[in-house]
Amino acid sequence: MKLTSITELLKQGVVLGDGGYLIELERRGYVDSGSGREKVGTGRGSGQFTPEVAIEHPEALLELHREFLNAGSQVLQALTFFGTREKLNRAGYGAEIESINAAAVKLAREVGGDRALIAGSVSRTQLTEREGMDSLGKSSDHIAEQIRLLKEAGVDFLILETFFHLAEMKVALKSAAAAGLPAVATMSFRPLILQSTDGHTPAECARVMADLGAIAVGANCEQDPVRMLPLLREMRAATKVPLAAQPAAFHTTEQCHSFTRLPAFPDDLETIQVSRREFIEFGKHAQNEGIGFLGGCCGCNAAYIRSLAAGLAHQI
Fold first, then answer.
1. Which of 20, 80, 109, 203 would give a disulfide with 298, using CB separation of 3.0 to 4.6 Å?
2. Average pLDDT of adjacent 10-residue blocks, the chain of 316 residues
């Protein structure tokens, strides 16, 4: 792949991203799921799926980047999910925010070289979930700080992902714009795909994210491809920018469309694992569904990305 900007790459066809890092690294023994402890986020080493692996086990992260690249990923995400000072403080790593974000970008760049663009992953702070909408000012400060660190580290663009509240996504998009970084923006919907946690339909979320400058809008995590498709179609009807889809590889139920709200999360996820066949089929239909950026989220290792690539090679 001849490296170019993500904006130009989206014009050339469906861009293949990578998969899920934290759950895969947890399965390999490098990340804590947070289960088995009563007080997650109360001190050193008490995080749930926090990204300190970038400085503590860089060789493990390098290997996972290599696997995704070899599977066909055109974009590698720096492992900076849950990398804001607020989240890292709660896990006992607040003092290492600069080193964690910088190391994660460096490792992704080392593997990606001239073969893949490097995206900085920015997620929700969890302040809105714990403190309500009055916390948005603090969220803005934390997100803006992380985006500044990612820009300084040299990311090509941002992936704003796993935001439950549209209000917090708006904060993140404004910070991305202020930093001058292109942003792919994906919401996560739970417990049902009908609306965000603060009551906005997928169509409303898509319109707002596009209006705030997102170069692609969509959904990530929580749902497998089949369950995610209806909300993506609602988004497609509401905006002209490309869709972004990063489904999880876990089945949900009619009563609960969110795998993180099911009893299998986080330690029995193997019992609800989705077959790679579903990802092959998703890849086949991606272009017709208006998907411009296609990757995977939780549960998606390199085999799932290879399946998406196989589907893309046989688009309908």
1. 20
2. 86 97 96 75 72 97 98 98 94 95 98 98 94 95 98 98 98 98 98 98 98 98 98 98 98 97 96 98 96 98 98 91
Give, as one character, the DSSP assignment of residue 20. -
Instruction: Report residue 271 as tokens.
Output: 């019992």
**Three-class DSSP category at 175:** helix
Hunting for tokens 């509240």 — which residue is that?
165
First to last CA, the chain: 23
User: Is the separation of the CB atoms in 304 and 277 below 8 Å?
Assistant: no
Position 34 scores a pLDDT of 82
**Predicted model pTM:** 0.96
Instruction: Tell me the domain boundaries of the chain.
Output: 6-313
- Residues with Cβ within 8 Å of residue 218, at least 6 apart in sequence: 184, 185, 186, 187, 206, 232, 235, 243, 244, 245, 246, 291, 293
Q: Which superfamily is assigned to 6-313 in CATH?
A: Homocysteine-binding-like domain (3.20.20.330)
CB 38 within 8 Å of CB 315: no
